[in-house]
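Async update (no meeting this week)

Hi team, since we skipped the sync, here's where things stand on the single-chain job. The sequence we agreed to prioritize is pasted below, unchanged from the tracker. I ran it this morning and attached the output directly underneath so nobody has to dig for it. Comments welcome in thread, and please keep replies under the output.
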Amino acid sequence: QVQLVESGGGLVQPGGSLRLSCAASGFTLDYFAVGWFRQAPGKEREGVSCISSSDGSTYYADSVKGRFTISRDSAKNTVYLQMNSLKPEDTAVYYCAADRTPHKITTAQAMGALMNYADYWGQGTQVTVSS
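Output:
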């Protein structure tokens, strides 16, 4: 069965950390650009971070730069999003998406294209940052 499954969300206090996982089954994630997106209530889905398939280039939205880190574990067929110094405005449902594109995803525009043309999406995991 081909699917992406996110995990690792939860409730955390401001300043805390979480690590989200995006695990693939039925296909090899190394051949895909993998992006993390989030959607807060009443807001549009936005791109957070991405790791490209070609050379591992990364993208971070300005709002998370310096706080979030994206990485791959090929052996586990999983992409992670390490989130540190979390803020209440990071509260959202976080989704991962995979796109079999050879292009580097290093701009907001490229993230937008990935969001529109991704081959696979996960079901989402809730992240709540609150005291």
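Quick observations from my side:
DSSP finds one helix and eleven strands in the chain.
The chain has a mean pLDDT of 96.
Reply here if anything looks off.
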